[in-house]
Amino acid sequence: MKLKDQFRFVRQNMKKSKTRVFMTILAAAMGSAFLIVLASVGFGLHKSVVKEITERQIVTEIQVHGKSESEDGNHHITDADVSKFEKIENVKAVTKRKNLQQDGYFEYGNHEAHAQTVVTDMRAELKAGFELSEGKVAEKDNEIILGYNFVDGFVPKNFEGGDLYDNQGKIKKKYQVGESLLGKTLTLTVRKFEDGKEVTKPFEVKVAGIRKEPSKQWMFDRTVFISEGLMKQIEEFTGTPRGMLTDPNNPNAEIEPWPEDSYDEVKLYAKNLEAVKAISDKLEKENYFVYSVVSELKNVNTMFTIVKAGLIFIGTIAVLIASIGIYNTMTMAVTERSQDIGIMKAIGANPKTIKSIFLLESSYIGIIGAAIGTAVAYLISFAVNFGLPLIIKQAFGETPPEGLTFSSIPWSLPVISFVICYVVTILSGMRPAKRATQVDVLSALRREV
């Protein structure tokens, strides 16, 4: 019996018991849809977490936080290390920064601001992707570069009152500086303690450039970049490395010496994402403390793989429950078609052919159910992503994070669902199909089965 004829025979027999077959397909569809929707939550949250991690920093960035030495403990990264990093294959740039070890206090007119203040190699920064929105790279000791949002951190001096900020947490327009700081002269005030008393010294600095606006609206860049020459002037005034403040209650306390060529923040930038892991592995073998997006994603992927496998397993249980209906349907089909089976055996039909007909019917039901379930799952996923944020906002008064994906269905998930449904339906039809091959011809023709 040809496969084409087997399909025709299966369809004709399915039409004879439409209601029962429909309910069986519906059960299979519900099981398949449940599997896909449940697992899609794991895929959706995984996608959201990965997106958050990759948007938070540059994916080709590798942070180096020091080196472990078995004899002397942990060491800061020095120029010798930086030179070594620059020679590593597929490293595009290496940036190195020194942080001012006290709050950078800046004044302009009647406004003041505090900001992180750093020294960096601007040539390396530009190679790594540092861009300016206006102005130029600082060239003189008294020239600085401001982060794009630095001006937003200025507040009126000695402000009294409670209406400084608006509903969005920003300084109200009437209290802002109200002009570009490019080309303006700011005052950087540095502190130190002598005999328990605070002594200050102002440094006049000119804004040479302003950094490009961050790519994400929620990111704020208020960093101030100063020159190496200005940092040395600050160190001469404070008498401490990086302008570190001494303890006013213990002025004679020793300050741990830092190598002059050491850095507080060193980052490597790979030429592409594929090279990040190889570079990170090489540095870790040499006992450097390394962090990169790839390292974090590895842990996140492992965790979510376990979660998704668990959800798929739970969803498979629903498909197994639906298989009970398939088993019942196929058992009834064997009983109802006993005379047809007897006729086929009487004219010489091979038992394998009879068995394959019933397996074909059970798999037919499972595949149709999986197809319908997949379509329903996509509709549910769309409805969840669209409606759940609105429900959370209305019912709980909370706004979900922007871009959060509750449900995501990659192409692999329907494939997994189809495979599981197919295997389960084959197993469900195996026993009834085997029973069909054991039907006695004479008894079947006498309708005694």
Automatic annotation (TrEMBL):
Localisation per UniProt entry: Cell membrane
Secretion signal, residue range per the UniProt entry: none
Pfam families: FtsX, MacB_PCD
Domain MacB-like periplasmic core: 22-234
Cellular-component GO terms for this entry: plasma membrane
Chief location bin: membrane
Keyword line: Cell membrane, Membrane, Transmembrane, Transmembrane helix
Source species, domain of life: Bacteria
MF terms in GO: transmembrane transporter activity
Membrane topology term: Multi-pass membrane protein
Domain ABC3 transporter permease C-terminal residue range list: 312-438
Transmembrane parts of this sequence: 21-45, 306-327, 364-388, 408-427
Family, as annotated: Belongs to the ABC-4 integral membrane protein family.
PANTHER family in the record: ABC TRANSPORTER PERMEASE YTRF, MEMBRANE COMPONENT OF TRANSPORTER-RELATED
Name the UniProt record assigns to this protein: ABC transporter permease
